[in-house]
Design brief:
This is Mor transcription activator domain-containing protein. Helix content is 55%, strand content 13%. The chain is an alpha+beta fold and 184 residues long. It has two domains: 93 residues, no CATH class; 62 residues, no CATH class.
Length: 184
Amino acid sequence: MGTPVSRVRGGSETVTINGVALPEARVRDHMPETLREVADLIGVAAAVRLSQRFGGRRCYIGTNPEGSALEDCVGPDAARALSWYYGAGETTFPRGESVDRYARDQAILKDRLAGMSCGALAEKYRLSERRLWEILAAHRAHETPCGVVPIPESATIREATPRAAGRATSARAGNARAGFDGAR
């Protein structure tokens, strides 16, 4: 279950997470701060593999990581860099759930654009249809004419759903047209 990295046009890199190829810079943007520091040290793809394998659990880092599970996960150079940076002992790496959600949401968008129904998406991703519509609405709220902008981690459902804001505005406008000013 490795996370391959491949070069694409223009020299940028992509990281494949759960079968979805994503731009390395976008994946890094969705990482928790601690995982970003690890990514700066060993690379984004290795940091994703590390969080998938050891995230949320204690991981022993020896002074010589040769032949260890850590080396199997991230490779010998990255394991040596982690050993040098953290020293010998146990450390806990973040799980990187926001990266997994980002990859899942991008896969949902790709499947939806391919014509998959919301019911089929709900079954495939084991989500409610309501949650799928929220993900799709958040994506629509952040689209630009030049392309797709990823959903920011800080976006709330109310901000991401234009209809929710529109309903409140149109109700107030309807009351104003009817002569109701809110006073009894």
